[in-house]
Amino acid sequence: MARSDNRFRETYNALLDFCAELSPTDTLPSENLLGDRLGVSRTVVRACLQRASDDRLIRWDGRDKTLLRAPLPGDRMPLDMQTEDPETLEQRFLEWILRFDVPAGTPLNVAALSREFGVTPQLLQEFLAGLSRFGLVERRKKGGWLLLGFTASFAVELSEFRSLLELNAVQQLVTLPGSHPIWPRLEALREDHLSLLDRIETDFHDFSPLDERFHATINSVVQNRFVAEFQKVIALIFHYHYMWDKTLERHRNQAAIGEHLALLDALLLRDAAASERAARRHLLTSKTTLLSSLRDHRLG
């Protein structure tokens, strides 16, 4: 399929998404406004309008464009593109927000972003609807999406919620029987932390995946689908902020390894009080680091 044909199909499907937000008898905006919204030229807009008219989706009479009916699934055009799994799309979207410092209040152009990420507009719409549960985006009253942004207040709320979830996991973990598979996993984590500590002068960049595995392992003892969903987004946000904040990276990673080891040692001793103290200390450090990286990035 030619790229230009695929562009038309993407835009037409985006037009269908726009029409789905309207009611029959509503009037569509001008070709120029539709072009701005869909991120394409008037030529492409006119081709899409012609298709919609042929399918009796709209009545097109000069400048007047009236919606006749709601779009149906069968109206959509197939696309010759990869359909990313939701987790990959989530990672790429958050990286786009954090790396390019997209400001709060930015309208999200679904058609343009679907091309940026190489996914269908429909998949991106579904993804944004799911992401709205976390307070990062919201649906606009007149259609489309608005980025609420990653602000300092959001970072504080995120850190506080992360602390609630992780402290709960620590409390549950220390009560597990010795036969539980979590214990050998913690032992292996401890060895991996000690190994990286020995190589910290040269291999401090390797801390990020180890940090993800550390928190994921601790939180894995909580069998709760809602917790798992929120933990995934929380982990991604912390991960990407650490990726572009390179200030004192080796020192910061070395200190974090020490805090991880203190928690691992307390957990392996089944010391509930010491485990909670170590977890609280590390979560406070993570919150401080996140806020610092956010402030430094805004000023940089």
UniProtKB/TrEMBL annotation:
Record flagged with keyword Chloroplast: no
Organism taxonomic ancestry: Bacteria, Pseudomonadati, Pseudomonadota, Alphaproteobacteria, Rhodobacterales
Protein name listed in UniProt: GntR family transcriptional regulator
All copies of domain HTH gntR-type, residue ranges: 11-68, 89-147
Assigned keywords, A-Z: DNA-binding, Transcription, Transcription regulation
PANTHER family reported in the protein's UniProt record: HTH-TYPE TRANSCRIPTIONAL REGULATOR LGOR-RELATED, TRANSCRIPTIONAL REGULATOR, GNTR FAMILY
Every GntR C-terminal domain range: 157-285
InterPro entries: GntR_C (IPR011711), TF_FadR/GntR_C (IPR008920), Tscrpt_reg_HTH_GntR (IPR000524), WH-like_DNA-bd_sf (IPR036388), WH_DNA-bd_sf (IPR036390)
Transcription regulation keyword on record: yes
Pfam families, per the entry: FCD, GntR
